[in-house]
Amino acid sequence: MLKGLGDMGQILKLQKEFKNIQKRLQKNELTGESTDGTVKATVNGEYRLVDIQIDQAVLAGADKRAIEKKIVFAVNDAVDKTKEYAAEEMAKLTGGLNIPGLSSFLK
After folding, report:
1. Where are the domains of the chain?
2. Measured between alpha carbons, how far is residue 21 from residues 42, 54, 70, 75, 94 in Å?
3. Predicted confidence (pLDDT) per residue in 83-103, tens digit
4. How many CB atoms are located within 10 Å of the residue 97 CB?
5. Does domain 24-106 have CATH number 3.30.1310.10?
6. pLDDT at residue 24, as a whole number
7. Exposed e or buried b for every residue in 54-87, given b needs 16+ CB within 10 A?
8. Which residues contact residue 92 at a Cβ distance below 8 angstroms, ignoring those fewer than 6 apart?
9. pLDDT at residue 104 above 60?
10. pLDDT digits (tens, 9 = 90+) for 41-83
């Protein structure tokens, strides 16, 4: 009778799955590290820094600027990993289709 209702049902199902993925992403935490592994930063799915670990040896032997660079690198690495994870999760939902505007929800 109403041919479009099947499509609407599919849209509602996708919307529910999208919200579930968003919730899962928000709870997810990924850790990035400096190139030498002495600084580790953990970022959650909302791109908030939740933890940072600095090896004691770095604090004893490095200069302030070197430590700052390692922190920046580790945080950026964690953010990049979080973005990649979010993109992978959304690709599962969309079947790899590039849906305009969808990626902006993840940033």
Report:
1. 24-106
2. 20, 32, 31, 23, 12
3. 999 888 888 877 755 555 555
4. 9
5. yes
6. 84
7. bbeebeeebeeeebeebbebbbebbbeebbebbe
8. 21
9. no
10. 999 988 999 999 999 988 888 789 999 999 999 999 999 999 9
Written as six digits, the tokens of 14 are 């996708």
Q: Which residue has the tokens 């090896």?
A: 55
Query: What token pair was written down for 48?
Result: 């908030």
What is the structure's pLDDT at 27?
Answer: 87
Beta-carbon neighbour count of residue 17 at 10 Å? Answer: 13
